[in-house]
Amino acid sequence: MKKIILLIVLGYSIAGLAQSKLDRADQYFDEFKFEKAITLYNDLASEDRKTSIHVIQRLADAHFNMSEYQNAKDWYMKLHAMQGQNVGESNIIKLVQCLKASMEPQKADQLLKDFYSSDQDRLNMILAQKEQLESLKEENPKFEIKKLDFNSKKSDFAPAMFNDMLVFASARDTLRSSGKIYPWNNQPYLDVYLTNPNVADYVPEKFLDNMDSDFHDSNVAFAPGSQTVYFTRNYIKKNKLNANNDGLSNMQILKGSIYQNKLIEVTSLSFNSKDYSCGHPAISSDGKFLYFTSNMPGGYGHSDIYVVEIGMEGDAISPPKNLGKQINTKGREMFPFVDGDTLYFASDGHYGLGGLDVFGSTILSENKFDLPSNLGEPINGNMDDFSLIYNAKKDLGFFASNRFGGAGDDDIYQINKAKPVDCLVYSGYVLNKNTGDPIPLSKIELYDGATGFVSALQTDGNGYFNITLPCNKENKLVFSKPRFTKEEVSIITGENPQEPSEENMIYLTPFESLVVKEGDVEKIKVNPIYFEYDKSDITPRAEIELEKVLYAMREFPGIKIKIESHTDSRGSDQYNFKLSDDRAKSTMRYLISKGIDHGRIVSADGYGEYRLKNRCSNGVKCSEQEHLLNRRSDFIIVEKNENMENVQR
């Protein structure tokens, strides 16, 4: 439906004798009756061994105008095969859009590079826009879109905000008693409707009591701070289409005022002409300029965007000025909209994803614009996306698209700024707890409290890390390194970004600091474990030392131990043996009660006074300190995994 802006044929018949099939096909094409034209052109193509370039061109254009891009692609490919680089820039642009709509972007890119190989400036612009679009794919989407309930099975597009309501153009239930149908798409002519996008069951109603005509009324724009309205309509005289000398009724931009829900003081803007179309009015944020689409002579392509200065009364006070080749191309530039210093518009001539795409360009001055940037997904796709309006301050906008999954021909979608995905930059250093030295290439694992593992990274050579945490999550960071303990940090993020959290110091304890070696034997490092005289119960003092054993075994689940308990030589040998064995078994039971798997304690045995560490055997006079050296419990490591990699607890 977006193509209605250009012209309307009145349906005059060609005078004279019986027409040939080609004449009838051409007449249908010129009257925008593309379905009928396609039928006849297909007949001609099947009848002739060598189909003429004229018929191939018309079949390609007819399918393209019907947004049947896959069918159009086949015919444009035939043209390109027959004519090569002489096929013309307009056909190349259309073929590129058809290839992208058919999910063949690589072939489309190569076609562009080949065609513009001799136009370095144009090629550089395309490559810059391609790079910008590809960079968007590496970022989180900036917008969220949703389909609106008021869309109909026919065409709905050209949204505009009117206070808190939404005005839009639609072909829904606009069929008059006279039975007028727009031949381009076999839908009724357009009227302007009003709805509340925030109320799901709000039934759209006609905008203003007296605005609609028997033909197209669409594309409304409102002057800021006034009741002045601009809109697009056919040239009409006495409720009939008013044609130019070629039998065509072009489009014009009208201006009126709203009074008591009626349109009054309607006038045609001075730059309108029956010889070309003007439409898609858009007013700058300061109300001083009117942007619009036109196919007036002297443009760059099929349709271009122009601007005029408007005076206090809302009339044009300067001649139309083409926005230039930074904005306009050989293709279609349409549906301008201005928010602040940004010009949004739809184009199939700039590098995009397929069909019409929405672009944004910063207005640098009245005559200068920044390189148009594709808005990317989800606003743009491989079909037609157009007529965008957006208010950056409210983070709210609307646009139209004929993408798959809609309710009808064209549908209106709402745009909101995407909720933040990343909320907190968390950075710092992983350090050796004993020495304070950095631990390079430490492993960092990110876990979502609800779904589990998310991602992993490493610290750099200086032990530095920098990780971005998602919003509205219970994040768990696990820091580890082989032969070091593991450290966990829990961070809960909200819905909105937070200030970066920097200089966080994460300390890991080396395994070597938890053990002591005696020859080839490796033991968990503990101080003497004290028991009450003649008892094997675990005392509070003993628990303090056993926490060291628990810590080592919890941090390094791959190790297995055996427990050996010893006494000094005082007392009988048999008594000391039993006492030490009871203490070893009591120690084992304590560790198991604290969560250590039974299988990780290979044995727990007492040796009494049979393995003294000094000369203090039976009958030898020794100090208490010397006897203390023999009263010991050893936690000997008998097995460990090769890299001492601690595992997720």
Looking at this protein, list some descriptive labels:
649 residues; alpha+beta; Serine Threonine Protein Phosphatase 5, Tetratricopeptide repeat; Neuraminidase; Immunoglobulin-like; five-stranded antiparallel sheet; 10 helices; elongated; signal; membrane; OmpA-like_sf
Characterise this structure.
- It is built from ten helices and 36 strands.
- Strand 32 and strand 33 (521-524) form a beta hairpin.
- Strands 1, 7, 8, 11 and 12 form a five-stranded antiparallel β-sheet that branches.
- The chain is elongated and about 135 Å long.
- The two termini are 60 Å apart.
- The longest helix has 21 residues, at 573-593.
- The protein folds into four domains: 19-118, Alpha Horseshoe (Serine Threonine Protein Phosphatase 5, Tetratricopeptide repeat); 143-417, 6 Propeller (Neuraminidase); 422-511, Carboxypeptidase-like, regulatory domain (Immunoglobulin-like, Sandwich), CATH 2.60.40; 514-640, OmpA-like domain (60s Ribosomal Protein L30, Chain: A), CATH 3.30.1330.60.
- The chain has 649 residues and is of the alpha+beta class.
In short:
By secondary structure, the protein is an alpha+beta fold. It has 10 helices and 36 strands.
Cα gyration radius (Å): 40 Å
- Straight-line distance between termini: 60 Å
- Major beta sheet summary: 5 strands, antiparallel
What percent of residues are in strands? Answer: 25-35%
State the CATH superfamily name of the largest domain.
TolB, C-terminal domain
Number of strands: 36
